[in-house]
């Protein structure tokens, strides 16, 4: 069978996905209308045309603006449900997704509203599609430590719904060390930890995520290749990297997908996975990410199988659950 059919057919887990990054313009306009919110672009087409980025920050500015129309629990439900419907068609059977509470609580939306909507959709996705899930609460690293602590406090009543904490937003100038104490508290409370590191920031930030935040996975991690001893460490500990090919292309982390380091990383023994990051903004969900990298780097079915298997081994499913999924 063709590589395309092979990618479509193989069961996959998604481990690096921002739910706010799945907000398609069609749904954004629909929700804006019912909430009497104005979008600064005149039409769906105009909005899509604005999705052209030179770096992470240019994307983040548009991504946070888009989230402004989300007000009610139903909005968060609809957003999450649309994502699950989409990835169900792509044979994604397990998801570990991020939400950014501060993006909403800073606009006066309650933590409760946000998490209830997302959680209810995830439960329904499990019932209707059999998609298992974990939810990861991500701190915005451009905001201060106090704001992250407040967010962690707000999350405590919903501990059963949140498996881990993460760190995202503007990387350069906001190193993991800024959140060492917040992550320490989060671990004490029983949360697993991950962090975006080495997307635009240096290898040093990946070291900090490992040593100071005690992360179980690195989100992106592209820049680890600048530091041989870091690569050695990540291989030795089998710390997974959640790579996002189309995101890297759209945010100019790589010039061309032919330059994407995924194969180099696999060959060096790193545990790498393919993910979509913010599919509504970067032009593709899981299968499009697999396909684009398969095309650019001439991946074999064996390599694609390895990547799909990695997505489960790198997940937070138990060993028994993993066996049932692979
Ligand atoms: N990097 C940092 N912050 C983000 C990203 C990303 O790729 N996507 C959404 N928030
Ligand atoms: Zn991300």
UniProtKB/TrEMBL annotation:
Residues 11-326 form the Adenosine deaminase domain. The active site is at 199 (proton donor). GO terms for molecular function: hydrolase activity. Its cofactor is Zn(2+). Binds 1 zinc ion per subunit. The record marks 220 as: Important for catalytic activity. It catalyses: adenine + H2O + H(+) = hypoxanthine + NH4(+). Substrate binds at residue 278. NCBIfam families: aden_deam, PRK09358.1-6. Belongs to the metallo-dependent hydrolases superfamily. Adenosine and AMP deaminases family. Adenine deaminase type 2 subfamily. This is Adenine deaminase.
